Amino acid sequence: MQKMFAAVTVALVITGSAVAQVQNVALSGLNEVPAVITVATGNAILTYNAATTQLNWNVSWSNLNNGNGNNTSIFAHIHAASGPNLNGPVVIDFGNNLPGVATGSVFLNTLTNARLAALFAGNGYVNVHSSTFQPGELRGNIPAGFIPAPGAAALLGLGALAAGRRRR
After folding, report:
1. 41-49 and 20-27: which strand pairing?
2. Helices (H), strands (E): how many in the chain?
3. DSSP-derived 3-state class of residue 134
4. In 3-state terms, what secondary structure has residue 73?
5. Contact between residue 18 and residue 50 where contact means Cβ atoms under 8 Å apart
């Protein structure tokens, strides 16, 4: 019993030490599919807390090509595609008519399994749309593994339990 308690404790310490992950995602017109030529630039800082499944974002951009000198997007959100370098549906909406910055958070356990699968497979991307480039002016691809597969922490814990039980 003590060995099982030790294995559970080790599993909790391991999973607890990797609870929050931060990912910096550069936004560029060249990442769009198809690519767009723009002077606009942007950056997304994504923070994922595996313990709560909460994803926080702080996305900023400048020099959008709206033709009117302002920096307001018409839309900004995270998409999840069915494969790399493809376009996909919106899964997390940041809002409309944002003036160069979007901040917020969402609990990923509210998303469907298919959308979560696309995100943890590396097929998610941050997209900022302008009136000139309505399909998207800036895109930043979210790398595979940033958002772990659902249940990954639980599997790690089960593995630790099995290892502890095996040593008996």
Report:
1. antiparallel
2. 3, 8
3. coil
4. coil
5. yes
Helix H or strand E segment including 3: helix 2-17
Q: Is 75 buried (19+), middle (13-18) or exposed (0-12) by CB count in 10 A?
A: middle
Ramachandran area for residue 72 (φ above 0: left; ψ -120 to 50: alpha; else beta): beta
Q: Which two three-digit tokens encode residue 129?
A: 């749309």
For tokens 């000139």, what's the residue? 132
Backbone angles phi and psi of 150, in degrees to 5:
-55, 135
In sequence order, the 6+-apart residues with CB closer than 8 A to the CB of 166 are none
CATH of 20-147, picked from 2.30.30, 2.115.10, 2.60.40, 2.40.160, is 2.60.40
Question: What's the pLDDT tens digit per position in 48-83?
Answer: 998 888 999 999 999 898 766 677 888 999 999 988
DSSP letter at 158 equals H
For the chain, give every domain's residue range: 20-147
With residue 8 as reference, give the H or E element that holds it.
Answer: helix 2-17
Give residue 33's identity as a one-letter amino acid code. Answer: V
Tell me the C-alpha distance between 57 and 43, whole Å. 10
Condensed to tens digits (0 to 9), the pLDDT of residues 140-157 reads 999 988 877 655 544 444
The verdict on pTM exceeding 0.70 is yes
Residue the block writes with tokens 């991307």? 125
